[in-house]
Amino acid sequence: MDLTADDGVLVAPHDTGPAVVTVTLNRPERKNAVSWPMWQRLLAIFRELALDPVVRIVVLTGAGGDFCSGADLASPAPAVHPLIQMDEINNVALALHRLPKITIADAVEARDAFRQRRPASFTGAWPGR
């Protein structure tokens, strides 16, 4: 698997070994908003990780202290119908949902918001509530 890319997504084995892989949204200047190339890369990454027998755990995180602010609406969209765009984004969500690995969203801001009973941009479950 390509460990570096200039499309805003980094993939690297975790310090604990190759069984744990960290996928980092790496656009801190945009609060890790997901651009169209990132959606495409994430789909390829999740599909590749699903087939990797060595990887058992996938950690999804964001660079620069932010997990993800959502889709980057300011980035150029592909020249396809909006419904096709939504279908592609849906494919990314389904690939993550169907990933036969333990997945951990390392969303510190969301966890802290939950503990303080305030709204957050991320909804989910995490260990150590």
Summarize the structure.
The chain is α/β, with parallel strands linked by helices and 129 residues long.
How many strands?
4
Rg for CA atoms: 15 Å
Percent helix, as a range, is 25-40%
Give the C-level CATH assignment. Answer: Alpha Beta
Counting H and I runs of at least 4 residues, what is the number of helices?
3
CATH topology: 2-enoyl-CoA Hydratase, Chain A, domain 1
How far apart lie the N and C ends? 33 Å
**CATH A-level architecture:** Alpha-Beta Complex
Structural domain count: 1
Name the overall outline.
globular
Q: H/E order of the elements?
A: EEHEHEH
Beta-strand percent range: 15-25%
Q: Give the full name of the CATH homologous superfamily.
A: 2-enoyl-CoA Hydratase, Chain A, domain 1
The SS-based structural class is alpha/beta
Q: Low-confidence parts, pLDDT < 50 over ≥5 residues?
A: 118-129
